[in-house]
Amino acid sequence: MKKRTTYLLKRLAAACLAFGVAFTGMPASSLYPITQVQAAETASESTLATASQAAKYGLADDIQDGAILHAWCWSFNTIKENMKDIAEAGFTTVQTSPANECKDTYSNMKLMGNDEINGTDGCWWWQYQPTDWKIGNYQLGSRDDFKAMCAEADKYGIKVIVDVIPNHTTPDLPKVSDNLYNAVGGKDNLYHANGFKKITQWGNRYECTTGEMGGLPDVNTENPDFQAYFLKYLNDLIACGADGFRYDTAKHIGVPSDPLDAKSTRNNFWPVVTGEESAKGVTLSDKNVFTYGEVLQGDNVPESEYAKYMRMTASSYGETLRGAVTGNSFDVDTISNWRHASPGRLVTWVESHDTYCNAGVSSRMTDEQLRLAWAVIAARKDGTPLFYSRPDGSNGASGNRWGNNVLGAKGNNEFKSTEVREVNLFRNAMAGKSEYLRNPGKDSQILQIDRGTEGTVIINLKEESVNINSDTKMKDGTYKDQVSGRTFTVSNGKISGTLDKRKVAVIYNKDQESVGISSTTGSNSFSTDTLDVKLSAKNVQNATYTTSEGASGSYTDGEVIAVGAKSQIGDTITVTVKGTGTKGEVTDSAEFKKTEKDPYLKYIDGSYDVYIKKPDGWGDKINCYAYVDEKTNNRKWPGIEMKYLGEGVYAYNLPDDFKTARVIFNDGASQYPAAQQAGLEFTKGQSMAYINGSWTKVEKQTDDIKITFSADTVSAKVGSEVKLTAQASGGSGNYTYKFIVSDNNGNWYKIRDYEKGNTSTWIPGVEGSKTLYVDVKDSAGAYQRAALPIEVKKVNEKLSVKLAASPSGTAKVGSEVKLTAQTSGGSGNYTYKFIVSDNNGNWYKIRDYAKSNTCTWRPGVVGSKTLYVDVKDSAGAYQRVELPIQVTKQAEKLSVKLTASPFGTAKVGSGVKLTAQATGGSGSYLYDFLVCSPDNNWYRLRDYEKTGTYLWVPKTVGNTMLYVDAVDSEGNYRRESLSILVTK
Fold first, then answer.
1. Which helix (H) or strand (E) covers residue 272, if one does?
2. 248 is catalytic
3. 827 with 873: CB under 8 angstroms?
4. Of 64, 1, 5, 63, nearest in space to 346 by CA
5. % of the chain at pLDDT higher than 70
6. Catalytic annotation, pick one of 41, 145, 207, 294
């Protein structure tokens, strides 16, 4: 998976055309059929700032190398407001709840209302019952809110994944959008023929992929009209800033080998939505988005086939991990096994929203247990860990799952706890490094996860601190535990130090200074026109690069440059990087050799419809069998012999009336695709080649196309939109357009890949002289390029300030309230002053101007208040913002009274009514009754429930102690007891 920021597309509304420049017959760049057009065109310039921000917060370049925060039921605006906290907590990615339109009949903003069966009092799961595939719903916010959230994510280098649900709609069919019904050809065409029959055998793939699940009608995901409609939804999400998708109930959508519904001809939903195929002329706009599916493990699930299209959830591993942490044993043999057929294609979690909200199997786990288990999946090399954000105010251990019970609100603060944050940052820093798991001293209550030779995470499940002296792969030296701050020593393959009880130690030197160079292909030799090279810079300033081809410049961690454009076959290109650390200059260099292109490529020039490079082991006579339907083919099997061109390349032109067809290559004994599989798709007007397992378009070049290329300004500003417009003529018509920008230092960045639209919006991220390019292809594959120079200037943003309080909304007398101001724009070097008003004309200064943007305030009087922050920048610009807050009295301390009837004595076998009454504390109470028998054995009479009464029937003679545990809605706890004498 390439770096997501490399492919981010921003399609914003553009301004009017200001001027135009015509280019005709411009010489195109060196282009070889099938090879990459410009290997350097791998990032839009605006995303360089995003990558830079990611490096600033220590985030991984790739989604798969970092951690995902599942901001479950947070609104788009809530996620936006907490983006800085998410970045500082080390999360590379945030996953939203479903953004689709949903039924809003019961729009009470509760996570779970009193009607837990039908959700008529409000419920989170209405998001998962789509009425239409358009962005925006009452629970999360509008399309504009989503777009603004994605823009905010870019500022911090964070990627966005959206939960999508193509498998079913709401069962309330009149609520489904008429637009959706009309787009798919009517209501009947929206659902499978089997779509209203309940699944009874979950291991039966026909039932599982076509039947009704949980009362939700099953969508005919193989209907091309539906696929095109759903693709437009995905493309709109991408255009607004989405970087990936999580497919809900993915195992209920068939893969190609699954049995077909009566209304379907092919199970091709996954090839379509991952960009391998089109539907009704619509194609996924970015094949490189991060995709994973809820493919829950069970009987007869074709995990290996799903792995061809997406990553999958490691549900069995999550179950194993929960059992391990609650059982206080992280035995390596248990923990190391991913329990999956495709261990390299996993998204992992300790708990998911389903295990917490639906089955509830993880809801009783404590926050401590979650942190300890999270350290395992976040520290390991494989799998992309997802952290489920529990509702704010929830307390699983006491049975309070829903906490404050507010849809759209931020979850609790566990996602930014010290241990979670530090192990996330460790994971980001260790991307690509090997792992080694061990139990020091063969003690299963201690798990050590070494990553490469640079760091380790050690988890202590014991109830006491432990001194260790364990084997390790780490280099000799002293290292800091980023959680406790203590020093660990590595010498002669042994690591020693002290582990805190029930804690995670994250041991590495976070501030290590380094620069580096690596090929994105994993090889330092290449036969393409150019090679992508990734540059790294850790904890250094002024990172720069130079190449032996004469290119040079500054760079940020994770930036990609291209080499080879100015070199000949056989040349070696040297890349050198430098940076300034605290101890002086650090440097690195690497060599890359340009080798001869594959000789067979010269024959694949687009003059034939289809080509094949003979696979190993095939005979010299190769046939092409082409068919349109069961009755129409080019000749009976094995088809028509193809023309041999040389270097193992064969070619064939399909009949002129075969506008769309499928082709199968064979030598009479072997064939591709295999027997009983559909042929490769072909559309007249293009050339396709089958080479080394890939069915690829052939690009042709001609000078017949003429282009007029213009921008709406000659002088752009950093961060401002520039509308690009291209108009092509000549060639074969039906043009597609690709937009690129060069910084004139040999660096190329893709603005937008090939699409039919001849306009695009570019947002420059760096000042300086640039050159804009448009590449145009026609329906025959002919190609032409035009260029346009442009100057980018820097612009100073207006000073902007936001003020937040924690807690927000209300506070209690005498309790701490943390104030945080966020400032952007202006001239930097801000100072902050904090003030409070009691709304009766009385003003009090909390703190005078200082550089720190945080402050603590302790309210002393009940009532309505207004908090203020005054901000000045280094140029004297001033801004004030305010924030209302309500101050209430401190709640009384929780207390509980326990009585028994009869009191004092009771008889064996006779009922004793226990009554508990709690007062003080906060909100509602839960009660747990226990007994300690005369022989000093403890028994739970009843787990936590709302009712404060219980009928106890004593069974044993003697002095007996009865107990009640009470907890309030904030998790405060109190125990009370009484003794009773039991007689015969």
1. helix 269-273
2. yes
3. yes
4. 64
5. 93
6. 294
